[in-house]
Amino acid sequence: MSKNSKFWIAGRHSVLEALKNTNNKIFKIILQNKDNLKFIDKSLQKQVRIASNKDILSLINNADISHQGFLAEIQRTNLEIPKSEIFKQKNIIILDGINDQRNIGSIIRTAYAFNIKTLIVNKDEFKEKSILLNKTASGILERIKIFKTSNVVNIIKELKKNNFWIFCFDSNSNTFFDKKILSDKNIFIFGSENKGARSIVKKLSDYQVKIKINPEVDSLNVSISVASALTILNLN
Asked: What is the pTM assigned to this prediction?
């Protein structure tokens, strides 16, 4: 992908994973405790500055996150994958209408934990430089494959032509998600908590499904829905 301007990331896992990624450019490393120098490669220690909690919070505009005493200013250059790569995958998650960067970060971390290594996102909804997104993803943004698109509908159509089955999660569906209905190549679509996936996306789906939960509960947080669905997918 084209080079991005530099931005701050925070949190131990986010920072340390970013430092390991040799495709990233590292401009500054801020630590709250000099004892944490032991986690920083010697080749990068000249870029380290020890700072107080107050100074760290000032650098990240007092963002409501737990920085854990680790902060880095980076430029990420290898996050996005070419379209040709997505057709080689077996299982892919598509996010449609999700704007909460914490939820997106949590979904990224959960997806990778369950061996889903490719996400398709709307480029206007995915804020790669968001300190909240990076912190919640806990370093997994350095590993997972992201394809950003300005037209989710067209990508779904292309995926269908390439033998993917499309599963759209919808709390109003009458069909429970079951791994028995899966194909060899599957797309799992999750929409916003308030509105779900768009109607045009639902119409393109082969199945509209929901997670089986206590009927007294209307719906799940979208990141919990992803975790629940992938748990079902991985059951023996």
From this structure: 0.91
